[in-house]
Amino acid sequence: METLSQLLQEVARCRICHASLPCGPRPVLSVDAAARLLIIGQAPGSKVHDTGIAWNDASGDRLRSWLQMDREQFYSDRRLAIMPMGFCYPGKGSSGDLPPRPECAPQWHARLLRQLPNVALTLLIGQYAQQYYLEGKRRSLTERVRSQRVDGEFFCLPHPSPRNIRWFRQNPWFDLELLPALQSRLNQLLDE
To answer: What is the spatial distance between Cα 90 and Cα 6, in angstroms, rounded to a whole number?
Structure first.
């Protein structure tokens, strides 16, 4: 039976899609068997690729504010795991970063999830994570975020990118209703 440590070593050596990665492979994730909260986002951006630190960019700043966590807690709390849909930076597209590589999640997610038995809540950030993990894939991101229950296994969030400023302005209910509900759930979860 494989251990989490062995699996993470295998992930670090992954070269499945190296020919499609303009900056080469550099898997960025952070998982611990003690994790209670799992964050599944898209894929690392160029700054995250350069530093090797997940969510180490403006999107991460906004995400940490949503979670009411400072950098130290976000990066040191073993109860928080980070596992993007694509572990490596996929490169730049015409309107932002390219989508996560399609090989990554099917190759690694199920194996990693088996090593995370204590996860009680998974944040699905952005359309790629939501489409991969949820039924009703034809629904829009806004519909998924707005119609969810706060006590479920998954919690859908829009991507916290500065590129999504327009979405946040058009959906004030997100800050007024959904974030407080998420924050309350997180307080309960991390106090258990």
So the answer is: 25
**74 pLDDT higher than 80:** yes
37: β partners: 80, 121
**Axis-axis angle for helices 179-191, 58-67 (nearest 10):** 70
80 backbone dihedrals φ, ψ, rounded to 5°: -115, 130
- State how far the Cα of 34 lies from the Cα of 165, in Å rounded to an integer: 34
**pLDDT tens digits, one per residue of 4-30:** 999 999 999 999 999 999 999 999 999
Each residue's pLDDT tens digit, 98-119: 999 999 999 999 999 999 999 9
State both tokens at 107: 């190759």
Structure tokens given for 19: 């020919």
